[in-house]
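Last lecture ended with a question: if I hand you only a sequence, what can you say about the shape of the protein? Today we answer it with a concrete record. The protein is 4-hydroxybenzoate polyprenyltransferase. Below, first the input exactly as provided, then the predicted structure, then a couple of comments.
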Amino acid sequence: MLLSDFTESAVRHRRGRLADLLTLLRPLHSMKSLLLVPIAFVDASGWTLRELAEVGWAAAVFTVAAACVYVANDITDRDRDRHHPAKRLRPIAAGRVSVRSGWLCHAGLLVLLGLLIGFAPGGPYWPVLVYLALNIAYRYVFKQIPLLDVGVIALGFVLRIVQGYVAIGATVSDWLLVTVFSLALLLLFGKRRYELLTAGPEHRPTLRGYSVELTNQLLPLTSVLAMVAGLAYLATDAPFGPYRHMAVLVSAPFALFVLFRYLQVLLVDGGGGDPVRTLLRDRVIVVLCLLWAGALAVALVLARHPVL
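The predicted structure:
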């Protein structure tokens, strides 16, 4: 083998290893923190650069904390993941990243997390610590209990919202928390339904406590709860001032059709195995959400600057 061929092979190997380590962190799932934590900015007192920095830092902290959880889960679940048609391709389950390298990556993330919290410009970071503790409890206890397993994961979404508000010292709406919790449950029940149809309990033993019929009943229940709570938030606690009624009227059709489309993806197209990927890559959902967000942004700006 020529020296140039050997060097090229070594470079490809290093690039592949770096790609596997990056995959281990699940960068696509960072959107959970990058989208949920900044919601607090709509209730910021003055929309200052300081508040923007505090919310952005909180989102970064939660992104790193979530990556810690993902790496630890991939290590402990590697044997079960090999029974899943998609998760068996994950770096540790597939053997491309060793367990030792996984734990080293996990340790490095914990150090980074400690530094980010230690130098944080915003408020306390107890929601992140609760999130980490909750995931440890999930890994060893709640993961084995049907229904409670999805409830604990859904709380992780709620804690992201809470962290954003804590970072800027604002009060979070109860209706907003109920909305996020019920939407998270909707996504998780859809994921459980997909797993029942494709993988079975060999991958996730708690699936023995579920059935397709049960998830089919829980999906509309959580959809209705999310819809009602979301509209109640817009009508009462959302910072739209005199434009609250407009926000409700505009949001109702968008929210309905986003839910309709997601249920269509689950029940007709057979999707939902990766809720984050489904939401971010489905063009109909993305377009609807962008139009919806644009309409609410206009109402928010008008409420903040009545002179316009």
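Comments.
1. Residues 17-130 form one domain.
2. The chain has a mean pLDDT of 89.
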